[in-house]
Amino acid sequence: MILLFSLLAWSQTPKPRPENPARLKVAVDPGHGGEDGGAVGPKGLREKDAALQIGENLKAALEAAGFEVLMTRAEDVLVPLWDRAKLANEAGADLFISLHLNAARARSAKGSEVYFLSLDQGDRDGAEVAAMENGGEGAAPASESVLSSILQDLAQKAYLQESERLAVNIQGQLNRLGGIKERGVKQAPFVVLRGAAMPAVLVEVAFISNRQEEVKLRDVAFQKKVAESMAMGVRRFFGANPSTARRKAAEQTK
Fold first, then answer.
1. Which helix (H) or strand (E) holds 113?
2. I want to staple 32 with a disulfide (CB 3.0 to 4.6 A). Which of 38, 148, 169, 218 is the partner?
3. At what angle do helices 242-252 and 220-240 cross, to 10 degrees?
4. Does an H or E element contain 222, and which?
């Protein structure tokens, strides 16, 4: 067990950023990309495009609030799910937010959902959403082994409570945004959240399968409001959890 945690500290701990230790960094992860288009709306809106547009707005909102931002992708390219948390870890990110659009067979389904990692299958609905979003993961890298899988789970398990708090804060702000029905914070086994050595959530902003919400998702003003709501959730998370920021500051000075 001591060996496992030593390996975890070596392979998963975010790297120090001595060049600017005071600023908190948020990794923004627009889902899908490249040949993985994700879900498609009734009028043809692709999840990968809307996720990137919202991600760009979230980056701007967070930077305006004083955060540093890492985008796991800034264009229409495919970044393997296995690599996204790794990019955040290597950049020394303090939070990881993966952006997606939900889809359901019931076209009336609407609203936002915020997830944090479940180390089991979670409930049926969450498992179905995770299976859909995990569909573009492809084969695990050759380096993936039983040991590295255990290390990934340990990395995120250490942050589950903070991940839940982050999810609650973001969901609370999205609930305030007009026209989005509350669907609540949930857990599910998302591949993209595994291995993130920081609080990490996946946001299903709205249902791209719903005609009315697809129209909203195309609207630049709505995208900006969604981004500002999530940025406020991040600010409230750090305001209510100052130990997260203090811990990071301490790590930066080691």
1. strand 112-117
2. 38
3. 80
4. helix 220-240
Radius of gyration of the chain (CA): 17
Q: Which DSSP symbol is given to 22?
A: T
Label residue 245 by pLDDT band (50, 70, 90).
low
Instruction: Tell me the residue type at 156.
Output: Q
Q: Is 34 helix (H, G, I), strand (E, B) or coil?
A: coil
Lowest-confidence pick of 101-110, 154-163, 166-175: 154-163
- Between strands 25-30 and 95-102, the pairing is parallel
DSSP symbols for 131-200? HHHGGG--SPPTT--HHHHHHHHHHHHTTHHHHHHHHHHHHHHHHHSTT--EEEEEEE--GGGTT-SS-E
Residue type, 29: D
Cβ–Cβ under 8 Å, residues 147 and 6: no
Cβ neighbour number for residue 176 with a 10 Å cutoff: 11
Neighbouring residues of 60: CB distance < 8 A, sequence distance ≥ 6:
227
Token output for 6 = 């030593």
Instruction: State the helix-helix crossing angle for 211-218 and 220-240, rounded to 10 degrees.
Output: 90
**Residue 233 reports pLDDT greater than 80:** yes
Q: Is the pLDDT of residue 188 over 60?
A: yes
DSSP state of 15: P
Q: Decide: 113 and 154 in contact? Cβ < 8 Å.
A: no
- Residue 173 tokens read as 């702000």
State residue 183's pLDDT score. 75
Which H or E element spans position 47?
Answer: helix 47-64
Tell me yes or no: is domain 22-252 CATH 3.40.630.40: yes
